[in-house]
Design brief:
Layout lengths: L1 E7 L2 E2 L8 E8 L2 E9 L6 H9 L4 E3 L5 H9 L3 E3 L6 H9 L68 E9 L5 E4 H4 L3 E4 L7 H8 L6 E6 L13 E5 L14 E5 L5 E9 L3 E5 L9 E10 L1
Parallel strand pairs: 1-5, 5-6
Antiparallel strand pairs: 1-2, 1-3, 3-4, 7-8, 7-9, 7-15, 10-15, 11-14, 12-13, 13-14
Length: 299
C-alpha cells in the first residue's frame, strides 16, 4: 500500500490544491518500510488526483480539500482522509493504527458532498472531508475550493446553474446564532459543481437558481441537511477490544476501519473504565442549519 500526505517542513500541508510536495510512504503488513518526497510540479486540484493515481497512491492524507477534488480522487480509486494536521510521520502511524483523529476543520467537515469536508457540506462521512465542515467530515462546506475531475458527474438537480462550476461564499449558523462554518473567515470561496450531489441538498438547491452577485438566506431542516441520527450507527464496545481507545476522550472524532479496511469517522460519545461508545452518524445529523450564501461566479 502507498500512502501520500500533503507535505511541508515535516508537517501536513493544509491546502490540497496548493501543495508543492507529497511525502509518499510504502507500507507492508501495516508498517512503513520506506518513504520519499515527491513534487507536485505546480499543478493543482483535479490534476493532482491524476498525479497521485499515476504513482499508484492508495490513500491520501491531507488538511483541507474541496468537493470537486474529493470527487476526482475518489474516481481515481484513492481513499481520502481529510482534516489531518501535525507531524506527517506521526499522522501516518496514527492512521495505520486506526487511531487517526480528525481536526474537524476540513472541507468535508460539513462535506456538502461526501466526498468534503469539504467538501465541505456533503453527506457521506465515510469518504473522510469534508468533510468538513464533510463533510466534510463531512464535502466540502469548508470552502477549500475543490475542482472537478475524474469523469463527468451525474447532475441530480434542475436549475440554470445545475451542471456548472460555481463559486460561493457562505456563513453557516445554528438557530441560536452560533457560527459553525464560514468561507468568509477563510478568505476563499467554496467551489463545486452545482447539482452534482457534492453539497447537502438544501444548499445545492438554493444555489441552482441564484444570480451572480445575489445573496440569499436559507433555513434547512435536517432532512435537507445531514438527516436524522440513526440509532444503529451508535455502538458500545469494550475498550480492551479497541487498542488505543483508552487514550480517547468524549467528543473526539476518530477514524476506524471497516471489514474492507476502509476508514470511517466516529465520535466518542461516552466512556467509562470498561466500555467506550462511538457514534458513526454525521456530527451534524439532526440539526437545523442556517446559511447565508453569496454566489460569486458561474462557469
Amino acid at each position: 500500500m502507498k500512502i501520500a500526505v500533503t507535505y511541508e517542513n515535516g508537517h501536513i500541508f493544509q491546502h490540497f490544491g496548493r501543495t508543492e510536495h507529497f511525502k509518499v510512504y510504502d507500507v507492508e503488513d501495516g508498517k512503513i518500510v520506506s518513504s520519499q518526497i515527491m513534487g507536485s510540479n505546480g499543478i493543482g486540484h483535479g490534476a493532482l488526483a491524476g498525479l497521485l493515481a499515476e504513482n499508484t497512491i492508495d490513500v491520501l492524507i491531507c488538511g483541507g480539500l474541496g468537493g470537486g477534488a474529493m470527487n476526482a480522487l475518489t474516481n481515481a480509486g484513492i481513499t481520502v482522509i481529510a482534516g489531518a494536521e501535525g507531524d506527517a510521520d506521526q499522522v501516518v502511524e496514527s492512521y495505520l493504527r486506526g487511531e487517526l483523529v480528525s481536526s474537524g476543520a476540513n472541507c468535508d467537515h460539513h462535506g456538502h458532498g461526501e466526498g468534503h469536508e469539504c467538501g465541505h457540506h456533503g453527506d457521506g462521512d465515510e469518504d473522510g472531508c469534508c468533510g468538513h465542515h464533510e463533510e466534510g467530515e463531512e464535502g466540502c462546506g469548508s470552502g477549500c475550493g475543490g475542482c472537478c475531475g475524474g469523469g463527468a458527474p451525474q447532475i441530480i438537480l434542475d436549475g440554470k446553474n445545475a451542471g456548472k462550476n460555481v463559486k460561493v461564499h457562505y456563513r453557516g449558523t445554528f438557530n441560536d446564532g452560533t457560527q459553525f462554518d464560514s468561507s468568509y473567515d477563510r478568505g476563499e470561496p467554496l467551489e463545486f459543481i452545482c447539482g452534482a450531489g457534492m453539497m447537502i441538498t438544501g444548499f445545492d438547491k438554493a444555489v441552482a437558481d441564484m444570480e451572480v452577485g445575489q445573496t440569499v438566506d436559507i433555513h434547512l431542516m435536517p432532512e435537507e441537511a445531514y438527516g436524522m441520527p440513526e440509532p444503529d450507527r451508535i455502538i458500545t464496545i469494550a475498550i480492551a477490544q479497541l487498542p488505543g481507545s483508552e487514550n480517547l476522550n468524549v467528543g473526539e472524532r476518530v477514524y476506524l476501519r471497516n471489514m474492507n479496511g476502509q476508514p470511517f469517522p466516529v465520535t466518542v460519545t461516552a466512556k467509562d473504565d470498561v466500555n467506550i461508545t462511538l457514534d458513526a452518524n454525521h456530527e451534524m445529523a439532526g440539526k437545523e442549519l442556517n446559511f447565508r450564501i453569496e454566489l460569486i461566479e458561474v462557469q
